[in-house]
Design goal:
InterPro entries: Glutathione_S-Trfase_N, Thioredoxin-like_sf. The chain has three helices and two strands, in the order H-H-E-E-H. With 78 residues, the chain is mainly alpha-helical.
Amino acid sequence: GSPFCKIAREALVELELPHLLHSCARGSPKRQEIFKKHGLFQAPYIEDPNTGVKMFESAEIVEYLRATYTLYPQYQNL
């Protein structure tokens, strides 16, 4: 697994957000699905069904999750 995926996954677990993890190993047809949908493949990738947000980049994903799902946003960077 990618260390960047681990960062995003840790944020999901830390915030106790229910999520589905889809493994996309090299050569996996799942990679092709994402590539066809977005014109590129990059991991991690998140689709938030609550807001419709779709994004790549672990740092941006973590920032988004904390801003969206933290009860006390002023403490999100502690």
